[in-house]
Amino acid sequence: MTAADCLVTKAGPGSIAEAMIKGLPCLLTAFVPGQEEGNITYVTDNGAGAFVPDEEPEKVADKVAEWLSDPELMLKMSTAAQRLGRPDAALDITRRMCDTLLDLGIELEEVGASAPGELAEGGKAEAAKGGGSDGGGYPVQQPPRPGPGPEPSAGVVDDELLQSLQSLGFSRQDAEAAAKRSPTVEAAVEWLEAHES
Fold first, then answer.
1. Distance between CA atoms of 75 and 90, rounded to whole angstroms?
2. Which of 72, 19, 76 is nearest to 47 (CA)?
3. What is the separation of C-alpha 81 from the centre of its chain, rounded to a whole number of angstroms?
4. Angstrom distance (rounded) from CA 156 to CA 111
5. What pTM does this model have?
6. CA-CA distance, 111 to 124, in Å (whole number)?
7. Do the beta carbons of residue 48 and residue 26 sit within 8 Å?
8. Which of 45, 56, 118, 180 is the most exposed place for a label (fewest CB within 10 A)?
9. What's the Cα-to-Cα distance from 88 to each of 72, 92, 101, 143, rounded to whole Å?
10. Where are the domains of the chain?
11. What is the enclosing helix (H) or strand (E) of 121?
12. pLDDT in tens, 48-67
């Protein structure tokens, strides 16, 4: 997706989420009734794309041509898409789930791991309370717990990452935009290169 200018797809949530993270306007052409209709509304109401039914391929092609011939519109939709993107969503969900388990008094611990964050041989870990699985037969492993101080939240800029990007010649504004979306210098540079004007 990094090389694309827009995405033409059905209204599947995974494709839309990836496109939003990459700042790609979405031209949605189909949906699963009852499951994906809301995705169309979400994308179109937020200015990150449009819906043209795939039964009208000429109109789909016309819409793509219209977008690609209007750089200002593309920039506007790309900015809207980036605003909707949640690059840390999986990590945030995992943290919330683990925090909920801990709040319920279910302490998680690694069993037989040789280093923090590493599973024991055979990939097994267990909960101190709760039988060693999540109830579905899957082993439970302790997530890394944050150190003292507040947990970073989405969109918080890592000063060290920001300084590294600026030392590479990126403007503060560009460096901040990339640092909010990327955990490493490499990922931030890739994002910046993909979004160069």
1. 27
2. 76
3. 12
4. 33
5. 0.51
6. 7
7. yes
8. 45
9. 28, 6, 20, 15
10. 7-84, 89-151, 159-194
11. none
12. 999 999 999 999 999 999 99
